[in-house]
Amino acid sequence: MWFTVALITAIFFSIASGQNAFAGAVGFGAAATGGNDGTTVYVTNLNDSGTGSFRDAVSESNRIIEFNVSGYIELASAVSLSSDITINGQTAPDDGIGIMAGEVSASGQNNIIIRNLRIRQGTLDSDTGKSAFNMGDTSNIILDHCSFEYGQWDTVDAVGAVNITVSNSIIALPIGQQFGAHVETGPSTFYGNLWVSAHNRQPLAKDNTQYINNIVYNYQAAYTTADTSGDFYHDIINNYFIAGPSTTSSGDAFFQVNAGQTVYASGNFIDSNKDGTLNGEADNTVGGATVASTPWADTSLNMAMLSAAEAYTSVLENAGATPRDEVDSYVVSLVKSLGTEGAIIGSQDDTGLSNGGYGTL
């Protein structure tokens, strides 16, 4: 019942705020309209380029992208999105759709909606300076129910991004730098996401940020502001940080939060004992930051409908692209071990999954 109530509340909140990306959209990216007034274009093959390809479909603005095929699209080079588009991965049949072996870039674009898309860069991309998803210097972007794995530079790079939301998504198993997400400028919203086995940046928040109902597992450093981030405001509410085999200090759930930051932290839990049971303790101590008595964003408390424990159940059931595939099922199984399984990896091969670690769609 609590999940239904939360969803209804989120839908009401979205409508009341004039947000129109889709029913239930929340946060600063939810005002994006994407290509919803444009032409529907269908991806009809898994080719890297050419007629009917994903690359061709996203090459022009004012489009709604839908899929008549399922499986992986293997990129030979980074693919660039246009502004004013909606990508509906949930329209793909069977196991759904995934992008592998290269970066998906929205760099310099605006007004984009992406849902139910798997983006898995991995070592098949020879350009180690690129990320799984790049939205640098963008505005009005929402990523919902997506799955991001095997990012090399950052999994999600959002330097210079304005008004973005990452919601109900999986950000896991980064390689290379082993980072989750890097955000500058903002504001940004991270809501209901599952972060797994990253060295740091979950996210690196150099902006005014909402961070609500996230689950972070097997971290070395989780929510990070960095000593050079400038002075920003952070609403960190009802998140669960769960130590794993790679966690050397559970207190690094809040990392490099310096005196320049203003933080409203409430309802957060840290499970530090790695004993296979969810039995964390409340922890809202956020370094040397100025402690705020109220959130900076007037929408934050309305979004925080789930407690940290309720968020754990909901996120593990619902985060990521649907239907849940081999890679995401593996990621969730690590989290469910509650401290006994998981590692920060250097290649998708380290997972032992099929298709060279990418999993089979």
CATH topology: Pectate Lyase C-like
CATH class: Mainly Beta
What structural class results from the helix and strand content?
A: alpha/beta
Number of domains: 1
In the predicted model, the low-confidence regions spanning at least 5 consecutive residues are 1-18
Q: Give the percentage of residues in beta strands.
A: 25-35%
User: What do the pLDDT scores average to?
Assistant: 94
GO molecular function, one term: metal ion binding
InterPro entries: Pectin_lyas_fold (IPR012334), Pectin_lyase_fold/virulence (IPR011050), Polysaccharide_Lyase_1 (IPR052063)
Protein name: Pectate lyase C
Cofactor: Ca(2+)
Helix and strand layout, with pairings?
Layout: H1 2-16, E1 39-43, H2 54-57, E2 63-67, E3 71-74, E4 79-80, E5 85-88, E6 97-100, E7 104-105, E8 110-115, E9 118-120, E10 133-134, E11 139-144, E12 147-149, E13 156-167, E14 170-172, E15 181-191, E16 194-196, E17 204-212, E18 215-217, E19 223-224, E20 233-237, E21 240-242, E22 254-255, E23 262-266, E24 269-271, E25 281-282, E26 290-291, H3 300-303, H4 308-318, H5 326-336
Parallel strand pairs: 1-2, 2-5, 3-6, 4-7, 5-8, 6-9, 7-10, 8-11, 9-12, 10-13, 11-13, 12-14, 13-15, 14-16, 15-17, 16-18, 17-20, 18-21, 19-22, 20-23, 21-24, 23-26
Antiparallel strand pairs: 24-25
Signal peptide: 1-18
Cofactor: Ca(2+)
GO molecular function, one term: metal ion binding
